[in-house]
Amino acid sequence: MNKKNIVLENRHPGGGKPSVAQAFSKKFSRKTTQSPHFKPAALARAIAGVFVCGALVGASGQARCDEPPIEEEYLNDIGATVLLEGGATENAYGLEAFATDLFGIVENLGELIIRGGSGNAAHGIKNLMLAGDIYNGIRRYGSPVTADANIVIQGGVGDESYGMGSIASRDSFTTQNYGTINITGGQGTHAVGIQYVLDNTSYESRIHNYAELHASDVYGITIAGGKGEKAFGIDSVANGRGSVLKIIGDGGVLIQGSAETQSVYGINVVSNNAGVVDIDNSGMFTITGGTADYASGIQSLAKDNGAQFSITNNNMLVIKGGAGNGASGVNCMSCSPDSMAAITNGLGEIRIVGGSNTRATGMEYLAYGGGKAKIVVDYGQVLIQGGIGAQSFGIATGIYDSIISISEPVIDNKHGRLTISGGSGLSAQGISSLFVNGGQGLVQNERQMTITGGSGPDTKGINAFVNGTGAVGKLSNHGMLLIQGGTGQSAAGIGYLSYNGQEAVIANSYTLTILAGNSGQFGIDTLAYNNTIATIENTLVAIELLRRYGREEVVFFYKRDIEVDFYIPQEKIGIQVCVRLGTDPDTIAREIVAFDKMEKEVELKRRIIITSDEEKTLRCDRGDIAVVPAWKWMLDYERKI
Question: CA-CA distance, 151 to 215, in Å (whole number)?
Fold first, then answer.
């Protein structure tokens, strides 16, 4: 594609700091940029405005780039500040499009302010570029400069007066940030800082954030809700099919809800309507609710038509409730059918904590209404904890009315340390309910996991593992799992394993410890309530095996994709624990295949499935499988079974 170039350069040479651009020069061809020379009349005109696409634009004026320049356009600011602002009348943009069918370059070493005006739909910039590069605080061919590099994008006073309509529409862009970028909503209704970062694009775009967390908590990128109704910092980050955004960051990012108006979020939707956002964080990434009521940091991570969101953390990720009532850090990870949101901890630390006001949760929903979500702990440590406000849960609801495959864990602790803990406020639980009203899924631990009550009244680690009609949940433990009561009144580790749900199971194949708290609170208060089923598998079997063979001879067998629980090397016996085998051919086939896979790893002479009350023999090509009830197996002192 034969695209021409547009270049906007905003450089501060170290002189004074006027409040608007002093002058711009226009140069054609691709020659090396020289120091600009100004005529007095041109300089006088430039004080009141800027040259955009060859036209002089006032601070409340409008520019249209319908006629692109012949070769290349340079806009060089010799002062410290450039202001692009919408006007006082409807559709009076500060700039309609910086690069139309062109490859644009914005290079900022001073201060670039883009904001909506007072007229309705009076955007600072309607569309920045179709394709191009944005450099903030970095000389493209020299060393990084951070001192005075600042980009401010702000919604206006008029209704729907965006700071910026979109950064890229139907194409891609790349941003390198070494300075600061501040994006906030405005005062008018739906006066967002940015409506869409990407809008119906066809290529992957990238944001490289290298700005370190400065002193006094000054982040490299700050996104915040504004004052007006629905005046979000950003409405949607990636909107529409084909919109793919990769964010790579060693620097600080802060996303926060509004401090002034309720239900005004830092970001409304990250991945929207089939959009895709992938974040690789190696810096300090903080998402927090605001001080206004229901002002979440982020309302939805993934929503509508197969949208996808993922973040991999290798340093510090904090998601926390705010100071306002209902001001969650993240309201919902995955919020519609076929959408998917994933949070993965690599070598860093993740904290999802409640806030300081009523139901100011760290996260309200993991998945809702058919969406899919997961939290993966590859390494490092993850803390999910209640806050200091009443009902300020770490996570309020895990999976609500969404069925997630049992083979794909919702929470998967692979090689790290996962802690779910109650807080100090009234009913400030680590997780209120994990699988709710038709929600189904798996929690898996392969290393170290602790579920503990908190210090406040009713501050359980998990209030209800399964809760509501049709809800099914399984906790599969292959590592060290501790469930312990807290120090507060009624602060059990788990309140109900199954409360009005269909079924809840803890399947243990290594070490499961359930302890009372320091003040006598239960590790698990109630297994099953109101005609539901709750079971803890393998524990009695494990104790009996240790009694019979000793610790050195019992292998708590675990290998990914092989669902057999125990192996006795001296007698070459494989043992699987299953509460109910039943007559379902798929269930029976799955158990047979598990033994077949195991036999590829170790020698098997006998195969046993221990159930709650079933007894029969399964005839198989590789050898029969004895199905026996647990009571009969435990009374088999001569080990004939």
Answer: 18
Residue 595, CB-side half-sphere exposure with 13 Å CA sphere: 25
Residue range 504-559, pLDDT digits in tens: 888 877 777 777 776 667 788 888 887 777 767 666 677 777 777 775 665 655 55
Asked whether 304 and 337 are in contact (CB, 8 A), the reply is no
**Residue 520 CB partners (closer than 8 Å, separation 6+):** 485
pLDDT tens sequence across 465-518: 999 888 889 898 888 888 888 888 888 889 999 998 788 888 877 777 777 776
Element at 480 (helix H, strand E): strand 480-484
Residue 531 pLDDT: 72
43 Cβ contact list (under 8 Å, min separation 6): 22, 23
| Radius of gyration in angstroms for the set of CA atoms belonging to the chain, rounded to a whole number | 30
Which residue in this structure is represented by tokens 């980009």? Answer: 151
Query: CA-CA distance, 472 to 317, in Å (whole number)?
Result: 30
Q: Specify the DSSP element, H or E, that contains 302.
A: strand 298-303
Instruction: Detail the DSSP E strand segments found in 109-163.
Output: 111-115, 125-136, 150-154
Q: Where are the beta strands (DSSP E) in 346-385?
A: 349-353, 363-368, 372-377, 381-385
Cβ-contact 596, 622 below 8 angstroms: yes
Phi, psi dihedrals of residue 123, rounded to the nearest 5°? -75, 150
Instruction: Give 579's contacts (C-beta < 8 A, 6+ positions apart).
Output: 505, 535, 537, 611, 612
- Predicted TM-score (pTM) above 0.70: yes
Token reading at 42: 């041109």
Mean pLDDT, the chain, whole residue set: 78
Return the SS3 of 116.
Answer: coil
Find tokens 């949208």 and name the residue.
307
Q: Which residue has the tokens 């070459």?
A: 572
Phi/psi at 377 (5° precision):
-110, 90
Phi, psi of 544 (to 5 degrees): -65, -40
Only one residue has tokens 């221990």, namely 610
Whether residue 381 contacts residue 348, with contact meaning beta carbons closer than 8 Å, is answered with no
What is the average per-residue pLDDT within 159-176?
Answer: 84
Check: CB of residue 156 under 8 Å from CB of residue 117: yes
- CA-nearest of 82, 97, 57, 216 to 149 is 82
